[in-house]
Amino acid sequence: MVKIGVQQPPAALKPEQEKEKAAGGDGAPGAVLLPPGTEEQAPAVQSRRSSLSGVCYLTMGLLVLLLGLVFASMYVYRYFFITQLPRESVFHCGVLYEDSLYSPFNGQLELHEDVKIYIEENYEQINVPVPQFGGSDPADIIHDFQRGLTAYHDITLDKCYVIELNTTIVMPPRNLWELLVNVKKGTYLPQTYIIQEEMIATEHVHDMEQLGSFIYRLCSGKETYRLKRRSARRRISRREAGNCHRIRHFENTFVVETVICKKS
Question: CA 20 to 30 Å from 101, out of 55, 108, 154, 238?
Fold first, then answer.
């Protein structure tokens, strides 16, 4: 009779099998072991991402706040400052001045005018009534700073004259408004002097629309001429200016006598 025996596994293999069973359970593959420190890195990445998101939200919030402040400032300026200007932009002004050429013995002369200032539209409108002393025509004047033009409507002649705006004599609307507001407490501007500018009427203006809407409204339907300034020289007297008309006005701290002569 032959005896058959079963060989037992070596004792050294038992611990390894037990480890595999313990790791894999019932014959299931074992779990993958991560290197130490990997599980600790995941929370750090998440915290870094959350901090970047917080910075982005904070930046967007600051931008929205800044835009809100800008629009609020524009609203306050437009509706609380500019809307109050029309109430104070119409002035009835008077000025005292001396004219040593025309009235050396009459002392001070007096000149009145009505001034309308349109700051947003950037132009000024001046009405000069019939002066008390004589020698000057009543007129309506427009200084259009957008077009760079000045228009004189001589009411006595019912004619219009257009010339380039002289910014050395005429104050811009904002500056003139500030000047008149500062002297509004008194009836008259401080005593001042007079200067003269002499001009010659040249060609007839046919296309009135090219002069802009403000001058168009003033001169539409009237004979309109271009003006050319003469070179500076001494003031001309009344005897020398037989074919000339004068308009005295002020849009600065001094009086201007605009002498408009016919082309000889």
Answer: 154
